[in-house]
Amino acid sequence: MHWVRIELDAYWIVFVAGFLAVAIWESRSPNRSLSSEVTRRWSRHGMLLFTTSIVSSVLHRATPVVVAIAIANTRFGLLNQPWPSYWLRFVLAFVLLDLVRYAIHWSFHAVPLFWRMHQVHHSDPDFDLSTGARNHPLESVVAQGGMLVAVAILGAPPAAVLAVAVFSTAQSFFTHANASLPGWLERPLRWVFVTPDMHRVHHSEEISEQSRNFGELFPWWDRLFQTYLAAPAAGQERMKFGLKGLQNDECLDLSFMLLQPFRREPQEVTSQETAVPTLE
Questions:
Q1: What is the rounded CA–CA span in Å between residue 45 and residue 253?
Q2: Contact predicate 218/98, CB 8 Å
Q3: By the 8 A CB rule, do 203 and 122 touch?
Q4: Which residues have a Cβ under 8 Å from the Cβ of 98 and sit 6 or more positions away?
Q5: The overall pTM is greater than 0.90
Q6: How far apart are CA 23 and CA 17, in angstroms?
Q7: pLDDT tens across 175-230, in order?
Q8: Is residue 229 part of a domain?
Q9: Are 63 and 7 in contact, with CB atoms under 8 Å apart?
Q10: Looking at the domain assignment, is residue 280 inside a domain?
């Protein structure tokens, strides 16, 4: 229960602090004007996040941290061995779990069934910090299941699993920010972390650009697996967001977002999986 309490406290502290920091950044230096009211976007995406959290909690009784705690004192897991130092296991677990998140994200574009779930995230006609909360409950259930399996196989230290969860929460707000860093900072930083300009390319309406820049925390995986794209063809200022054929106010309705995976979509949307590169 001690670790669970730490996890909850850390999550909410980072959630509130990260949200407020990025919200202030967006409001003071927006990258572009939004096509819909901020209050409407945030309220709808907030309701979806609440729904997703409830569904995920009901279906997954344990979080990745709980799984890590359960196997911490056993010999189960690739990293749960006596020979490596704790800090080596911590760093390896942190980096490898981010690689798992990259692979899960790639699969949501490559697997047609998963893509139907992930469409909800990409059908946002705008791009701001609330976009990070726009995930269908089914997608979260599948992604969380993948992380639970990965944590168990790796035998990751609980502290490393918690660190990934906390950093990912903050990073989600940061990478979806409707703001841009100055060029002198953004260019070197994207060698270490995924930046808003880098991730914004992934939300382009162009199918070939949606199939790039899958990185969650670190940009190395995109460069390693040749899925990196530095900038959209139309440029950061002129690129359009969302899915072609699904760029209207209806896309912000909670009912639309919950039912979207079960609808028959335009050809531009359903053909996306053909543009996803094979990881080599």
A1: 9
A2: yes
A3: yes
A4: 164, 216, 217, 218, 221
A5: yes
A6: 10
A7: 999 999 999 999 999 999 999 999 999 999 999 999 999 999 999 999 999 999 99
A8: yes
A9: yes
A10: no
